[in-house]
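Student: Hello, beginner here. Can you help me understand the protein record under this note? Any guidance would be welcome.
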Amino acid sequence: MASCRSPQPRSCSGSVPAALAVFLGLLSVLHAGSCDEQVPLILWTSDGISSPRQSPPTAGHIVGQQQLATYLENALNVGPRNVVLFLQDKMSVEDFTMYGGAFGNKQDSVFPNLEGALMSSSSPLVLPAVSWPASNAVIGQLQDQLETSPLYMDPETLSQLRLNASSPALLVFRLPYGVGADLMSAKEILSGNDEVIGQVLSIMKTQSVPYTAIYTALRPSREAASLSMEAGVGGGRSLLQARGGHRERDRERERQRRIKEKAGIYAPVEFKEGDDTCILLWAKGLSVSILRSGSWEEHDLTSSTFGEGVSPKLHGSSCDKTRAKLVLSYENVLGHRSFKLIFAMSQRHYKVSARRWFTLDAVELEYDGTKATFNGSRNVYAPAEYSYRCESVTSFRWPLLVPRSSKDPANQWRVSFEDLQIQGFNVTGSEFSYASDCAGFFSPGIWMGLMTSLLMVLVLTYGLHMIMQLHTMDRFDDPKGPAISVPQTE
């Protein structure tokens, strides 16, 4: 760590980047109660370029829109006016504390390029808590101060662009953030974003043009804040998309697709009738089991059905407006040379609900001339315009698939789908429609709460009834008169 003679640690440029994650982590502890409503913002300049040193806010202070405009104005009045803005979809201080090696494990950090850029900058500025409306307006503020329109770029197009130090430019690089992803996939996505930052900074270095770089996000990545901020973020997104145009949206979709493939999120099985997709199937896990000699033998079909470079055989599949059939063909499954997994679906209009519904009529196993049929029409259904999604669809544990009859060969088989999503009608493009989830409204927790409340109401009602049955005595003793005598003979 570089030494510094000044008694104030924040005036030493070498120590700030090295302790970036710890610094953000400590501040997140100081204002953990409200950190889900803010996003961090990091500003630095290119190597060898000095800019006015600005004091960061005190711990727990939230930078508003007006104060952020002052920070940006002070940085651009003296510093370079070629601005490189890395705008991530979502980001919070916790992303740095969890994945930035904040507790001494620097080898596990996913921000090596960002930390290297801050280390080489003479005056980095770290704002751990910026209100999300202010971060949404950062493009508009930079556009007003630079008096130029933003250019939405990626590293490939930046290498073909020639910048001029005397002419201001606002280059915007959109970085994705996985929605609903687990910890490992979020780490992979942040690592990929850091690689993009490194590529952009390397290209800027080769052009020898001084620049000011900013790294922030549109909204926090914490789930607790997503509902309260939905309306505000939507306006900012539509503004960016209108300025960026269709080319930027296409590049963003392609970048997200690459990130998902890297994180292990594979595409669904897709069957097309001509040029139009009519059936989609996706599952996190797919397995079949057969009963032999009193024990179950299991075979996992997930790797043979889904994944990059996997193309299952769909010969025999068909679809029209009322019926759809998806046929997955395999070889050498549990000793059977020929094995097919068939999904038979249909849709029709129901007068009671006054709308069309689709049902998974049957899941069939066809092997060596024998067919085992599981009925799913009673449990697996959804509106015709929706897809069907369920966390677990099995034939043996809380079964949604049941053998067609007691004599059907399906009684010797087990089928299990983990996190299943299927759609056989009204498919638009190559994406699932809105999912109708199999989870019922009354969960076990809700039932327990209702039964407990009902029991307490019954006890309270019985107590009130007993109190109302109490009667006041009609005769009392008079201390000045004769005592009341009760004849014992009667």
Q: What stands out?
A: Residues 230-263 form the longest helix (34 residues). Confidence is low (pLDDT under 50) at residues 1-19, 21-35, 179-184, 223-245. The two ends are 105 Å apart (CA to CA). The longest strand covers residues 336-350.
